[in-house]
Each structure stands twice: as structure tokens, then as C-alpha cells.
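Sequence and structure are kept together here, with a separate record for every protein. An example record follows, reproduced without changes.
>
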Amino acid sequence: MRFLEQIFLIVFQTSLTAGIIILIIFAILKLFNNNLNIRVKYISVDEFDTNQACSTCNNTNQS
């Protein structure tokens, strides 16, 4: 029974910690939404542009 209590406490503590971290991240994003929004858009457009990657793939397949 002691073993089950330890497992429950570890799972509970981990989920509680993860929930607190998520709430902190949401609070930071909410507070700095105007300042971070442009940077996040810039990073997402430049580094993860799927259209550019697909057009590059199409150009290599055509030649």
C-alpha cells in the first residue's frame, strides 16, 4: 500500500507542477501578447514556411 501511495504522490506532484508551469506560460503570453506577437509570427513564417519548402521540392522534381 505504501508503494501505491508513493506512485500516486509522484503522479499528483508532477501533474500539479505541469499545470502551474502551463498557467505561468499562459500568463506571460497574455501579458506580453502585443510585444511577442510580431516576433512569433516572424519566426514561424521564416523558419517553418511550408510553401517555400514545397516549391523547392517541386522545382527539384521537375528538372
In short: The mean pLDDT is 75. The first helix runs from residue 2 to 31.
